[in-house]
Amino acid sequence: MSYREAFRSLPVTGDLTNNAAPQYPEGSLKKQSTLSFADTLFPVATIAHWILASRQVLDDEPALQGFVDLQMREGLQEKIDREVLTGDGQPGNLTGLLTAGTALDGVVGDNRLDTVLIAVATLQAQGAQRVVVGLNPMDIIAMATMKDASGAYLMNPLVPLSGVLGASFTAASSIPRGSYVAAATPQGAYTALRQDVTLEVSREDADNFRRNMVTLLTECRMALVIANPELVLHGSFVAPATASAKSK
Q1: Residues near 42 by beta carbon (within 8 Å), at least 6 away in sequence
Q2: Looking at the domain assignment, is residue 167 inside a domain?
Q3: Which of 115, 126, 114, 128 is nearest to 167 (CA)?
Q4: Nearest 5°: phi and psi at 135?
Q5: Going by C-beta distance under 8 Å and a sequence separation of 6 or more, which residues neighbour residue 246?
């Protein structure tokens, strides 16, 4: 599962004033809550790339056509993930989670797992129902292989972080090693798709017909909505001050 897919959700925004309460006595007027919306614009970005390939290659080897399709989609997905995480918000780009979120770095004396647990708990304390945490694969391995003073693993290295505070964890190479992103979805952030990933093949491009070439275009149109920056946390890990537990 990619980091973008982890944030795909229904487009829900706005601040709720929650006045839910028991109805008493029977027949009395029930409590009214209010939901206010702010006019905030989030850019819709078109992310795409294309290649040229010979018609003969695609016709002669179906497996190669599938390989090219996979490479094009994975290449696009990699760029989408980078935009979702680190987009700078400039014209044509998304405003990424690391750009618009709230910084919450680890503190001296805490290890990687401590920092992640504090981030998840901080979001849950603010009412987050679903928390997604993105980590660099190397940091996941570092946490999975943490040991106590006797050399025993602190968690099952085959299923690291499974069930930790009910959060979902996903590996993302786009996240710099030594840092994390944690967000409530959809209260904090979600992606709004205008066009899912598509792959189109055309011979009607430039002189393709005369050269027996085809153009393969893969693209996606989407927006990243940061509904509440305080529910999107990111930060760096701080190395432990003591060596009571090995975290590297």
Answers
A1: 95, 192, 223, 224, 225, 226
A2: yes
A3: 128
A4: -135, 150
A5: 145, 146, 147
Give kind and range of the element (H or E) at residue 113.
helix 112-125
Q: Which of 210, 121, 224 is nearest to 166 (CA)?
A: 121
Interatomic CA distance for residues 72 and 229, integer angstroms: 32
Alpha-carbon distance of 4 to 134, in angstroms, equals: 10
Which tens digits make up the pLDDT trace of 128-168?
Answer: 989 999 999 999 999 999 999 999 998 888 888 877 788 99
User: Residue 141: helix, strand or coil by DSSP?
Assistant: helix
Report yes or no: 181 and 7 within 8 Å, Cβ to Cβ. Answer: no
pTM value? 0.79
CA–CA separation, 195 and 54 (whole Å): 27
- Looking up residue 10, the CATH number of its domain turns out to be 3.30.2400.10
Give me the helices (H) in 29-61, please: 55-60
**CA atoms 151, 157, 161, 163: torsion sign:** negative
Which domain does 60 fall in, by range? 3-236
Q: Calculate the CA 235 to chain-centre distance.
A: 15
Asked, for residue 48, whether it belongs to a domain, the answer is yes
Asked if pLDDT for residue 3 goes beyond 90, the answer is no
